[in-house]
Design brief:
24 helices; alpha/beta; Helicase, Ruva Protein, domain 3; four-stranded mixed beta sheet; about 500 residues; five-stranded parallel beta sheet; Rossmann fold; 4 domains; single chain; GMP Synthetase, Chain A, domain 3; 9 strands; binds adenosine-5'-triphosphate
């Protein structure tokens, strides 16, 4: 599906007769069960278990159904291939559904599925919203009017410099961000473009939104867009024949901030992005970009865009050290106390949580949510024991899983619709050889087993057969993006 098709996601409302003859229901969980059954029937068990088995209903707010998946990869895939289909089904099963918000969830606290009609209701209280960050595309599919096509993505006022803590891992990024934000509109630009990259939840979006806030407060015209908002904005403007206005708007600003650039897809959109980038930089306008990897690793991006992005300052934000994690936790606890005066977390508990939850800022938010929920339930003070119980699942979920060769064989076999016995057998038909070689390749890359041992576990094969399979798949993955995506999915299935 190309992005322009995705703009037609406004759902057709069910007719009165659909409702009166009982073919639709106002009960979100029941409607969602029906949609899942329909998806299984339409796409078959294999596709269903690959893409939809872990797609869950979170909550329905007004006309938007909030769904979630555990990984960004699944979200991108579903978004690109199945979203309009799911929206059509949901609209038929759940009257009044007009939009889907597809979130990436972290383990643990989730809103309870149901319909919430409260005027202006949000998906969750702010802390929860931070753990289940709305997918960028949500803002994109909300594009409905010509005026909206030209608007930026909403800024989160909590993501300011004041609320951003600085440590060793982000000092350089923070200093560069401050300089870029504070530079006067007519001053020479310190770094252009400024490219920030980091793994999930380490504060990229926070920092670049802080740049946009501060720039606006010193009188500059800043536009903050997720890469997907850029894509949809441009495509929507094209459809509405306002593309010139869209480009002019982009070029009339002092600062363009683009988030999650790794999601920029499509040749013509990349070309447009490249023109915009060149026009802005050459015209002395500041560009700030954030992504989950450095420009050189953005494989799907056009070489010219990558080299232009590498031409300014590229800074990585590293893992949050323990001191930084303590500061973030304390600030979140303090913020929660504004609404829950009895929520008191002693320093030794904060230190314990900071030590245990070492992954990222989003998990720290998740940990505070859990502490809050436990303290509300127990009604007593927050002891180390309570804290340990509260964050147990968060910590356990983060421990790297040891992958077993049997699991690899089972999951690969299921994915390719063959049996595990086929994989271990001597059969040499193509339908069995490919999954067998992929399974061997994954066994080599995901387990510490030696080639001879892998050979033994694959029906007593020689180590040279394993080596041949590993080399072959390695080579193919480098050339064939379809296969690379399949292997990536299998890896993720195995590491979850
Ligand atoms: N240095 C920091 N100071 C304060 N809060 C932080 C810091 N780093 C991360 N956070 C918080 O951690 C959470 C996740 O951060 P953010 O959304 O900016 O991550 P991200 O790098 O953009 O992740 P993603 O790649 O998933 O979009 C937010 O609540 C953010 O405020």
């Amino acid at each position: 599906m190309n992005p322009s098709e995705r703009l037609t996601l406004a759902a057709a409302a069910p007719t009165a007769s659909d409702i009166s003859n009982g073919s639709v229901t106002a009960d979100p969980p029941a409607a969602w069960d029906r949609v899942k059954r329909l998806l299984r029937a339409e796409y078959g068990e294999d596709v269903f278990s690959s893409w939809f088995a872990r797609l869950e209903l979170d909550v329905v707010i007004d006309d938007t159904v909030h769904l979630s998946v555990p990984t960004r990869f699944l979200r991108s895939w579903i978004q690109a291939h199945y979203l309009d289909k799911i929206l059509g089904m949901l609209a038929a099963e759940l009257p009044g559904t007009a939009h889907i918000a597809l979130n990436v969830r972290t383990a643990g606290v989730r809103p309870i599925a149901g319909r919430d009609h409260a005027p202006g209701a949000r998906a969750a209280e702010p802390m929860v919203a931070a753990t289940a960050k709305p997918a960028p595309f949500l803002r994109a599919i909300e594009v409905t009017s010509r005026e909206d096509d030209l608007a930026g993505s909403p800024l989160d006022r909590r993501m300011s410099f004041d609320a951003y803590f600085v440590g060793r891992s982000n000092a350089l990024a923070h200093a560069a961000a401050q300089q870029v934000a504070r530079a006067g509109a007519s001053e020479p630009l310190p770094y252009n473009p400024l490219f920030l990259h980091a793994a999930v939840g380490l504060g990229k979006s926070h920092l670049i939104q802080a740049i946009a806030h501060l720039s606006e407060s010193v009188g500059k015209r800043a536009l903050y867009l997720t890469a997907e908002r850029f894509m949809y904005g441009f495509v929507a403007a094209l459809k509405a024949q306002t593309a010139i206005a869209f480009k002019e708007k982009l070029r009339a600003i002092d600062l363009l901030v683009i988030d999650d650039l790794q999601f920029l897809a499509g040749k013509s959109i990349q070309q447009e992005f490249c023109h915009t980038l060149n026009a802005l930089i050459d015209g002395g306008k500041q560009v700030v970009v954030a992504a989950d990897r450095p420009p050189a690793d953005l494989d799907t991006l056009d070489e010219r865009v990558r080299s232009r992005l590498s031409g300014g300052l590229v800074v990585e934000i590293g893992a949050l050290d323990e001191e930084l994690r303590i500061k973030i936790l304390k600030s979140r606890i303090e913020a929660a106390r504004a609404h829950h005066a009895n929520f008191d977390v002693p320093d030794n508990v904060v230190a314990y949580v900071a030590h245990q939850v070492s992954t990222n800022g989003r998990d720290l938010d998740g940990a505070v949510n859990r502490l809050l929920a436990h303290s509300a339930l127990s009604g007593s003070g927050m002891s180390l024991e309570t804290a340990e119980a509260a964050i147990r699942d968060l910590v356990r979920n983060r421990e790297p899983r040891r992958v077993k060769i049997e699991d690899i064989q089972r999951i690969v076999a299921k994915h390719y619709n063959v049996s595990r016995a086929d994989i271990l057998s001597l059969r040499r038909t193509a339908t069995v050889v490919k999954p067998r070689q992929i399974a061997m390749y994954l066994a080599k890359s995901l387990t510490p087993r030696s080639l001879p041992e892998i050979g033994r576990r694959f029906g007593g094969r020689d180590h040279t057969t394993v080596l041949h399979a590993v080399r072959k798949i390695e080579g193919l993955v480098g050339r064939d993006t379809g296969l690379a995506e399949e292997v990536d999915l299998l890896r993720r299935l195995l590491s979850e």
